[in-house]
Amino acid sequence: VKAKTRSFTGKSDKTAEIGVIGAGIMGGGIAYVSADRNIDVVMKDINKSGLQLGLSEANKLLSKQVDKGRKSASQMGDVLNRIQPTLHDAALESTDLIIEAVVENPKVKEIVLAGLENAAPNAVIASNTSTLMISGLAKSLKRPENFCGIHFFNPVHRMPLVEVIRGEQTSDETVAKAVRYVEQLGKTPIVVNDCGGFLVNRCLTPYMLAFNQLVLDGGDIAIIDKTMSKSFGWPMGPAHLTDVIGLDTAEHCVESMDAAFPGRLGAPEVNLFKIMVENQRLGQKNGAGFYNYV
Ligand code: NAD
Known about the structure:
By secondary structure, this protein is of the alpha/beta class. It is built from eleven helices and eight strands. It has helices at residues 25-36, 48-67, 73-81, 106-119, 134-137, 172-184, 200-216, 221-231, 238-245, 247-260, 272-278, and strands spanning 17-21, 40-44, 83-86, 97-100, 124-127, 147-151, 161-166, 188-193. The longest helix has 20 residues, at 48-67. It starts with 16 loop residues before the first strand and ends in a 16-residue tail after the last helix. The chain binds nicotinamide-adenine-dinucleotide (NAD). This is enoyl-CoA hydratase. GO terms for molecular function: enoyl-CoA hydratase activity; long-chain (3S)-3-hydroxyacyl-CoA dehydrogenase (NAD+) activity; NAD+ binding.
């Protein structure tokens, strides 16, 4: 991965209205931080309960701001009113940037992305994928030049870095639009070339796989976490981090990184995250992961 150092000078007017597809952990967070920066958001999911989760997350974060005296109740209402939940692609027509944040499954993403091109012909389309190559996802598109990666980190409202990924056919204008939007959010964009996992997850995946192997070898989860956080100084240990990410997402990420770099990342034969998912332990999202949350 090479970080791009040249500047992008394409037309990049301020983003006024975005679409967010998938109202889960990431989509809900992206909708919240965008609305909080005065950007109108159309948030789409396939079911009402998904939309409800995305909205309740925004509600929770805003309530904390009100409790701390950083926002008034009416400012909170203004932010929430900027998020328009929908189950229909038609509502996306007026958006100028759409961020796809559905499950980390290339087949699902390709279908969703192709549909977005038809729903909003003038919008720049971006994927929040953690690990899948942008050039690969672009194969399902008629206008791959309008497509890039905008990879937020979790939790979206706290993490300052956002990777902007330039696929093989991504235009300078598209990269410029993405960079400008990330800056509008007050976050730090880094433009990277395309590969499985981009920059951050190329570094993070071997760490998560080493944790995976350590647990399979009998390592104590609480001791590993305490060592990596309290003693080593990271904000949280790998078990806690995986619970925050979601075990299902972690499972898919490990699989797609192993497929992108076969035999190079030291993936154990057994995918511990997959076993966790099979046992309905999805992490904080369903209250049970490496730790229990209810
Ligand atoms: P999630 O499971 O919390 O949410 C996914 C949402 O997408 C769900 O609400 C689901 O109903 C919805 N969805 C599924 N199919 C859909 C469709 N066809 N149309 C509209 N909505 C659909 O997942 P997440 O953790 O938010 O991850 C989403 C994406 O973000 C993935 O690509 C993931 O790799 C990436 N990502 C995740 C993290 C993380 O820490 N969880 C961090 C960075 C990037």
